[in-house]
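Risk register update: the risk of archive-format incompatibility is retired. Evidence:
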Amino acid sequence: FFSSRRRHTKYWRDWSSDVCSSDLDIQLINDTVMWRQSSMPGYQLTLQNCSTCHSAHYAEYQPPNTGKGYWEVQVLRMKNVFKAPIPDQDVPVIVDYLVQNYGANRK
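Archived output:
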């Protein structure tokens, strides 16, 4: 997104632009897949922790026969690799919710 009024120099790092983010009109679409509601405590924790980075699409499109080990690996990957700020004590609660609602035990 460069302005037509930029100055060009010999080096690409010297390019400048007078366009700022407030000049851009960005429209986000509404999410159509919501987390499956549950009275389990992991439901609220999932809303608080997982929805920050992605929608329920991620969980919906996982294989339906996944067990606790699979979901534990996924949650720990989000925490350790992608640096999701999930407290250690919340991991097993979120995993239980995911297993019951998106894994092999889904209803």
